[in-house]
């Protein structure tokens, strides 16, 4: 983090103009400077640097997420295509089975009609 700018000379001059003896003004100035050094304060520049870093990281995460989502969509589409193909095969089998049942039923009806006609002729 950056340090807060503190002009010790200007501070001492202001204290002296206010009537504080030079030795005391210098001691006050030194104490304030040390307190500023002990405090870890973020400057506007520090905050701007962090904002830029975070923006870059967020952009990278968004790119990664977009790529991952695209991959998942491709995998899902492939799996849905497989499921659709299986359902198509099952539908084809049911259509064939339905056709076979219709033919068998038709043959049974025709046989029954023929038997009934034969019995009636007798």
Automatic annotation (TrEMBL):
UniProt keywords, alphabetically: Membrane, Transmembrane, Transmembrane helix
Domain of life: Bacteria
Gene3D superfamilies named in the record: 1.20.5.340
Residues passing through the membrane, by range: 101-120
Protein name: Uncharacterized protein
Native species: Candidatus Sodalis pierantonii str. SOPE
């Amino acid at each position: 983090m950056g340090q807060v700018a503190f002009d010790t000379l200007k501070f001492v001059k202001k204290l002296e103009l206010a009537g504080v003896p030079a030795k005391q003004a210098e001691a006050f100035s030194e104490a304030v400077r040390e307190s500023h050094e002990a405090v870890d304060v973020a400057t506007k520049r520090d905050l701007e640097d962090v904002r830029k870093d975070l923006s870059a990281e967020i952009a990278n995460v968004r790119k990664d997420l977009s790529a991952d989502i695209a991959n998942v969509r491709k995998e899902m589409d492939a799996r849905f295509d497989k499921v659709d193909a299986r359902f198509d095969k099952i539908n084809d089998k049911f259509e064939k089975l339905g056709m076979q049942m219709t033919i068998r039923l038709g043959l049974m009806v025709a046989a029954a009609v023929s038997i009934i006609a034969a019995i009636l002729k007798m």
